[in-house]
């Protein structure tokens, strides 16, 4: 394995250049000087790992770039302006109506919500810059509800590839094309893709349960927080192989705490961050490559993977059931404060206006 690449892989944990003495490549990437006592260097698990090509990262990024450009074109056709200016979208991007019609998570398009029905009238923008009145089905778009009630379940998945604007996109891509790409180099496109999509989808399921139902949400942040969860799992699983593991863990935990605190700011969906991180932990336990130091350790890892798969499936099922069981915010009114600070209406802020009007009898 190329020495420069291995140094870059190790740097994702905050380390510098590691000991490049004659040790197995599987240990070199974590900076270990020697394998644990009793392990033989000719064992397959300690042979140098060939880095995988980050095909999934490049594909996801290409789709996200396409959708960002298309969202500006769509908003131009919908409102007469490429970006929302009244009120200004702080992320420098389209308005709420365009983002919802392109697939953002918007709960009233997915299930019945108090205050929203198929006959609810909503102020929709026009190509001349004004507003008109449309019903919920028209506001949601994407083919409507096909004669039934709100049922667009795929909005748990499509928002992963949408962004609220240029600033939102750049922040996510900075992490995705650096740390995310390095993690895929280690995991391979299939494992990485499963973790990425599971974390992103579960982030929007988690947010759908506890965020304000009238606030559109989109972005790859939940998927990327899942990758952060994988990094935490990898440090804990390979504790013996990492120089100064306590320091590396401390730095990662500080980054996680700071990221969740930033998620309390207006316009950011911290619920997606939390949900993505939790799913990243469980899917990371299930799919992350590990080193076995004994037969007991090997079987313990297998059992842990089985448990992690079961937990992942269970929390997916429970929160989807909870989402369709009614308004989860009524069961947990304080949960909203995990994603906002109760100051000057921050908890009611959103990317754009979604204003309903009284439906005539």
From TrEMBL:
Protein family (similarity comment): Belongs to the peptidase S54 family.
SUPFAM superfamilies per the UniProt record, alphabetical: Rhomboid-like
Job description of the protein: Serine protease involved in intramembrane proteolysis.
Parts of the chain that traverse the membrane: 55-73, 156-177, 189-208, 214-236, 248-265, 271-290, 302-320
Keywords tagged on the record: Hydrolase, Membrane, Protease, Serine protease, Transmembrane, Transmembrane helix
Intracellular or extracellular location(s): Membrane
Catalytic activity, reaction form: Cleaves type-1 transmembrane domains using a catalytic dyad composed of serine and histidine that are contributed by different transmembrane domains
A single GO molecular function term of this UniProt record: serine-type endopeptidase activity
Name under which the protein is recorded: Rhomboid-type serine protease
UniProt topology in membrane: Multi-pass membrane protein
Chief site of localization: membrane
EC number: 3.4.21.105
GO biological process, one term: proteolysis
InterPro entries: Peptidase_S54_rhomboid-like (IPR002610), Peptidase_S54_rhomboid_dom (IPR022764), Rhomboid-like_sf (IPR035952)
Pfam family, one: Rhomboid
Ranges where the Peptidase S54 rhomboid domain occurs: 151-287
Gene Ontology, cellular component aspect: membrane
């Amino acid at each position: 394995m190329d020495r420069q690449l291995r140094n870059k892989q190790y740097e994702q944990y905050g380390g510098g250049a590691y000991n490049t003495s004659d040790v197995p490549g599987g240990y070199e990437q974590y900076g270990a000087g020697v394998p644990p006592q009793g392990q033989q260097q000719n064992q397959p698990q300690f042979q140098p790992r060939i880095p995988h090509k980050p095909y999934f990262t490049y594909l996801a990024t290409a789709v996200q770039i396409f959708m960002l450009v298309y969202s500006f074109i769509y908003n131009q056709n919908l409102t007469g302006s490429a970006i929302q200016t009244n009120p200004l979208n702080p992320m420098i991007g389209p308005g709420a109506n365009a983002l919802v019609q392109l697939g953002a998570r918007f709960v009233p398009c997915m299930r019945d919500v108090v205050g929203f029905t198929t006959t609810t009238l909503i102020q929709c923008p026009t190509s001349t810059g004004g507003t008109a009145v449309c019903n919920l089905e028209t506001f949601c778009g994407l083919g409507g509800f096909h004669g039934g009630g709100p049922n667009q379940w795929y909005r748990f998945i499509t928002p992963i590839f949408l962004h609220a604007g240029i600033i939102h996109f750049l922040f996510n891509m900075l992490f995705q094309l650096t740390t995310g790409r390095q993690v895929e180099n280690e995991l391979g496109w299939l494992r990485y893709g499963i973790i990425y999509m599971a974390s992103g989808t579960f982030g929007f399921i988690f947010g759908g349960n506890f965020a304000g139902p009238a606030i559109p949400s989109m972005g790859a942040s939940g998927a990327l927080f899942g990758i952060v969860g994988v990094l935490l799992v990898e440090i804990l699983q390979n504790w013996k192989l990492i120089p100064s593991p306590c320091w590396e863990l401390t730095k990662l935990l500080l980054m996680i705490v700071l990221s969740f605190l930033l998620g309390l700011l207006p316009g950011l969906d911290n619920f997606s961050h939390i949900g993505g991180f939790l799913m990243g932990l469980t899917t990371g336990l299930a799919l992350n490559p590990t080193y076995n130091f004994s037969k007991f350790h090997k079987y313990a890892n297998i059992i842990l993977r089985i448990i992690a798969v079961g937990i992942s499936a269970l929390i997916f099922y429970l929160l989807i059931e909870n989402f369709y069981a009614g308004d989860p915010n009524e069961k947990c009114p304080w949960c909203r404060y995990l994603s906002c600070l109760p100051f000057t209406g921050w908890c009611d802020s959103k990317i754009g206006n979604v204003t309903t009007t009284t439906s005539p009898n």
